[in-house]
Amino acid sequence: TIVRTDREAPRHQNVSWFMIPADLPGITVERMYLLGDGGEGIGSGYKNTIYFDNVRVPAENLVGGENNGWAVASTHLELEHGSGGRIGRNVTFERTRERLRSLPSNGSHPLDDAESRGLLADVFMETEVQRLLDLRNFWMNRSHHEMSYEGPQASYFRKMSNLRVAQTLLELLGPYTLLDDTEEFDDAQGWFASFQRNAIVQLHPGGTADIQKVIMARRIGIGREVRERAGKTVE
């Protein structure tokens, strides 16, 4: 948890990072009921509002030194922004293809239609670029290559791409995309409905995805004499 520990110091030099146990007296956790609750993958699970009422934290829980909280936070923020990368299959494309194969047909199958195949190809291209950017970042991170704009680049592309993919899925699958409680038509157990909701929420809950553009610009030296450096995530 980042807390302000110096009221007079400049921005980013006035905060400290504490490991705060959730069961300390004065902490209240309330679940937030959001459009994108649940689901799988990035941004899945549930979000909470946490209240602190006269909470006292032992000094030994300070991480990284007093007023050095921004440097500590930059490590996990860098991972949140995509610098850690990941290795995985193109699940979105695979599930979309299987859904098309399983849809009932009236004389002709959706995959026999050229327009449907074109939309499926759009889903593949969008999600495959996501996968390759994540794979590149995983390699750079684990190989100890100095990273710059790559994390925010992957994060921004994923956020915007998922919104485009959600629209394509609506055009491709129609109402089947929104079902989450009918086993007869939803062999993915609500995955597509969850994807539709999360594509909106995960643009950037509580902010704007364009912050990733700002970070990329600073990392490559646009608008500043000194380039911003990425937070260190791997020793």
Characterize the structure shown.
By secondary structure, the chain is mostly helical. It folds into two domains: 2-66, no CATH class; 81-219, Up-down Bundle (Butyryl-CoA Dehydrogenase, subunit A, domain 3). It has six helices and five strands. The strands form two sheets. It has a three-stranded antiparallel β-sheet with strand order 1-2-5. A two-stranded antiparallel sheet has the order 3-4. α2 (91-102) runs antiparallel to α3 (114-142) and α4 packs antiparallel against α6. The protein is globular. The model has no long low-confidence stretch (mean pLDDT 86).
Describe the secondary structure blueprint for this structure.
Elements: E1 2-4, E2 15-18, E3 27-32, E4 47-52, E5 62-63, H1 69-80, H2 91-102, H3 114-142, H4 150-173, H5 191-201, H6 211-219
Helix pairs in contact: 2-3, 3-4, 4-5, 4-6
Q: CATH-wise, what's the superfamily of the largest domain?
A: Butyryl-CoA Dehydrogenase, subunit A, domain 3
- Helical fraction equals 40-55%
Order of helices and strands: EEEEEHHHHHH
Task: Tally the beta strands.
Answer: 5
* CATH-derived architecture of the largest domain: Up-down Bundle
What is the overall pLDDT average? 86
| Cα shape | globular
The name of the CATH topology of the largest domain is Butyryl-CoA Dehydrogenase, subunit A, domain 3
Which strand-content bin applies to the residues?
Answer: 5-15%
CATH top level assignment of the largest domain: Mainly Alpha
Tell me the major beta sheet.
3 strands, antiparallel
Span of the ends, CA to CA: 22 Å
Number of helices: 6
Taken together, the total number of domains comes to: 2
Gyration radius over CA: 22 Å
Strand order of the largest sheet: 1-2-5
Uncertain runs: none
Q: What would you call the structural class?
A: mainly alpha
